[in-house]
Automatic annotation (TrEMBL):
It comes from the Bacteria. It holds the Pfam family FG-GAP_3. SUPFAM superfamilies: Integrin alpha N-terminal domain. InterPro entries: FG-GAP, Integrin_alpha_N. The keyword Signal applies. This is VCBS repeat-containing protein.
Amino acid sequence: MLQFNKRLLADEKYEACAVFDVNGDGIPDIVSGAYWYEGPDYSRRHPVCEVEPVDGYHDDFSDYPMDVDGDGRLDIITGAWWGKTLRWRKNPGVTGEEWQTYDIDECGSIETIRYLDIDGCGVPEIFPNTPGEPQAFYKLVRDDQGRGTGQFLKFVIGEGASGHGMGFADINGDGRMDIVLHDGWLEQPEDPFQTPWTFHREFSLGSASVPVIGYDVNGDGLVDLIVGQAHDYGLHWYEQQRAADGSRTWIKHEIDMSGSQVHDLWLVDIDLDGEPELITGKRYRAHNDGDPGAHDPVGLYYYKVNGGRFDKHVIDYGPAGVASGAGIYFWVQDLTGNGYPDIVAPGKDGLYLFENLGPEGLES
C-alpha cells in the first residue's frame, strides 16, 4: 500500500494541468490554467494568461507541452468546449510576461485533447475529442532542422460525429495504434495520413472517458479496453474475444460502480512493481451539478489490475474541499526525485499535489 503526502497548491478551479520545465532551469514546473507553479516546491505562482471563465468552468481542458515555434521553449496546447478552437500559447521565456495565444483551428467544441506520435516522427500529433465533429488530428509542421514552425496540418480521419470519448489502442494487433471512439474504432492504415480511416462499429461505451485505455487486462494476447463513465456511474473493462473467422466480440466487466464522473484515466506503474496500475478519480462537478452522483464525495484511487480483478486502493476520499478528485486532465510524474510517480490533480475543487512516498514504512 502506497502512502501519499497531499498538498493544496492553489484554490484556483482550472481542470487541466501539465508538468514541464517552463523557465529552462532544469526543474519541472506545474502549469494549470492561467498560472504556472515554479518547482521544486511549487509555492511560487506566475501568470500565464487570462483564461475565460464560462458558467462555472474555464475554457481550458488541456495544458500540454510542445515547442510549437521552434525557439527551444515548451509552449502549451489547449482547447475547450466553449471556444470551439484548438489553440497554442507561446512561452515568452520571461517569468511574469503574458503568454500570447494563437488559434490553430476552429474545430468545434472540444471535450478534451490527447496526444500520440502517430507517425513515429518524435513529436506527438494532437487528437482533440470533438463529440459533434468527425475525428481529426493535427501534425506540427517542422523545418529542415526539425524545429516547429508554428503551423499545423489537419487530417480528418473519421466521417461521422466522433461522440464523447476517445483513446488509443492497437485493436487488431497489426502494430499500428488505432483510435477508439464511443461506438467503435478507426483502423490506422499503413499510411496514417491516408484518409478517411476505416471505421468498425463494434461496441457502445456510453459517456466514455478520455482516454479510453487499450491494455491486455487478462493476458490472453488481445487488447482489451478500460473505460470510465465520464458523466454517469461506472468504471469497466471490455474483454476482446476473437471467433475462428477473426471477428471480434466484446464482453463488458465491472471494475467499480461506486463512483461517477470518471473522466480521465492513467495506466502507470505507480508502485514500481513492474506492472502498471490504473489511476483515476471523480471529476468534481463535471457537468456542474447535472450528472448522476454529482453530490457524492470525491476521490482519487489506484487499482492493481491482477488479471481483471482490479483491487482498489484509496489515495483520497471525502467531501469536496476536504478530499480531492481528478479533473479533466490530471498528470502523473515523479516530481520529488524518489522514483515514485506523483499525481497532480486539478479541478473545480482546487489544484492538489499528491507526493508518492512509496510503500508504507519506506524510509525517505
